[in-house]
Write a structure and sequence with these properties.
2 copies of one chain form a homodimer. By secondary structure, the first copy, chain A, is of the alpha/beta class. The first copy, chain A, has 7 helices and 9 strands; from the N terminus they run ββββαβααβαβαβαβα. In chain A, strands 1-2-3-5-4-6-7-8-9 form a 9-stranded mixed beta sheet, with helices on both faces.
């Protein structure tokens, strides 16, 4: 798939240098790439080293509503010397609706409003097709992003739907480290896939996440086959990941990708 | 109790400046204090700010065998701008034997060699008297250490027998943050004490610690009453805490004590 840039703007960086934000389309998939702004004109031209890349995962709520948090994470990543990129998930945001996904989300909503337990079939119907469709798209994005001048890898994957992260970590050899957020439903079969993951992992768990089954998150952490895996559990609820936890994830990527 | 220094030597620091190591006695309790070496003579005399202090806990194996690991942790702490200190535990090392403790350790050894489960009575007999005796001694050490010129607090407690850390965090208001190692037997009653701990906590768990009950460690983490509590779980077995985990504990103390 071909990557076309559709817009470019300059943002203030997290500390020091500015950030270039470029929206793109990959076929019909919208995405965003963030890179450090080049040094101002009269500075001595240095042969620029290709940047390691962090793929920013996100929950299936759409790039637009997620933008404020994504740009915050991207600014961090760029300040640490990474390029950062994300793409929209299938069936979400401005992308064409997808009946099976809509149905699964409606079923989940109904069960949760009724206060019933969320059964395996609903989780499977909600997550597995999303993983099956999204993962090849993220891999295609990787092909296109790594072909751009100045972006060279290695590649990390961070956050978002944890099952997408697990599948990517298992099948995509260019991803060398992953920071996963254990905060969403995980289909049973993903525990088997987790055993086949061997790259270094940094797993974030919000201990008091009301909507998340803590024991499943701990079982998943236990299942990962990686020799280096770290679990960071914090307080603050589902969306209250403390700032110091985000910084710890930065350091994890710095340790493994640079 | 009076603190008397009995020896002093200069050690290489972890990065940059040297470390002064002073052995002391507090009554009949041996201890060690580590502080940054003063800047060399002709440097401009700056009014020195009193140092925050980290108390270094350790397992009940004696200060001498634990010295290499303690001095490593102390070098780290001093490089981060802390004073660090430790004292011997009652009944351990060069301190007078203590029949009840010897008996409890013998009982534990017998049960473990027989491959039997370690019952609550053995854990209670082993840990509770140690906590009851050690905690007042650490508080007395705090009185003496904070009275020294150049040491001003705030105070953190780090590592060692976790039940001693829990009790200290609960009863000693001068301790403002604690990094605890969930790697030893915890009496049932300590779970109740844990609920009354409210200071920021950084809890380290070795996920694949053969000699440690993981579920008890997770239950203990859950029990702590602190609004800010973080669990860091890593691989590497009981004594294989990775270097990056030690650095994360340093950053926890820097965030809370400086």
């Amino acid at each position: 798939m071909h990557l076309d840039f559709t817009s470019e703007q300059r943002l203030d960086g997290d500390r020091g240098g500015d950030v270039i934000e470029r929206e793109f389309t990959l076929g019909d998939i919208p995405g965003i790439l963030w890179t450090p702004a080049p040094a101002p004109a009269p500075a001595p031209a240095s042969p620029s080293t290709p940047l390691p890349l962090i793929l920013l995962g996100h929950p299936p709520l759409g790039l637009r509503p997620m933008y404020p948090r994504l740009v915050d994470r991207a600014r961090h990543a760029v300040a640490e010397g990474f390029a950062a990129a994300t793409i929209e998930l299938p069936g979400i945001g401005d992308r064409p609706r997808w009946d099976a996904l809509e149905q699964a989300r409606a079923d989940l909503g109904r069960v949760m409003r009724a206060g019933e337990p969320v059964g395996d079939e609903i989780v499977d119907a909600l997550v597995l097709p999303l993983v099956d469709r999204a993962v090849p798209e993220w891999r295609a994005a990787l092909d296109a992003l790594l072909a751009l001048p100045g972006i060279g890898g290695p590649v990390g994957y961070s956050g978002g739907v944890i099952s997408i992260g697990i599948r990517l970590a298992r099948v995509e050899p260019r991803i060398e480290a992953a920071a996963l957020f254990a905060g969403s439903f995980v289909p049973r079969t993903m525990f088997e896939e987790a055993r086949e993951v061997t790259i270094p992992l940094h797993v974030l768990l919000q201990w008091d996440d009301e909507g998340n089954e803590r024991q499943a998150a701990l079982d998943l952490f236990d299942a990962f086959g990686s020799k280096e895996k770290t679990l960071h559990a914090n307080m603050g609820g589902h969306s209250g990941v403390p700032r110091f936890a985000a910084e710890a994830a930065d350091r994890f990527f710095t340790r493994h990708l640079k």
